[in-house]
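Why this split exists: single-chain examples teach little about how molecules sit against one another. For that reason, every record in the complexes split bundles all components of an assembly together and asks for one structure covering all of them. Below is a record exactly as it appears in the raw files.
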Amino acid sequence: NAGVTQTPKFQVLKTGQSMTLQCAQDMNHNSMYWYRQDPGMGLRLIYYSASEGTTDKGEVPNGYNVSRLNKREFSLRLESAAPSQTSVYFCATAQGSREKLFFGSGTQLSVL
Amino acid sequence: DQQVKQNSPSLSVQEGRISILNCDYTNSMFDYFLWYKKYPAEGPTFLISISSIKDKNEDGRFTVFLNKSAKHLSLHIVPSQPGDSAVYFCASRETSYDKVIFGPGTSLSVIP
């Protein structure tokens, strides 16, 4: 029972490089979320998707793009990585608007 | 501007005593509230939630209180145990937008 799977777990990028963080869930949940966690800032919402085919901006969307490929997968893309994007990224899912979120184990990203 | 605030970055409590973690929110449209617990190098895990139509919800050692007029909620842990040492995040949800906003977290240390 995998739940929410994030890949990769660790990544080091150089400034200006691009990459995609992958998230897949086997819980048949409708909603999916991308958060970043920084010291003293807590978990900040980057983008979310209430259902397949829809995406919306969160609190800190600049520098990121997302794609809800299907119900299972929600990817986060950094087109031109910057040191300010060094963070731990978490994907989460929820069945509906009054349901709890389930989190993946995170991706630790360093941009040099 | 932070919509969900946890003004105590850290809290230290003796084992067996009560831990009280506080959270304030600014958006009056929030109508569902959650608490999450996070250990290092792991994703956050759900602890307890409360709907805006209630003022209290209890689950074992954990109780969440909601004061809508003050836009304030608190998490009580009784009795506190060393295994409760973790970072606790308060989260608020505006169900019509399916957006979940987290606070910056409070690091709880339970001293044996």
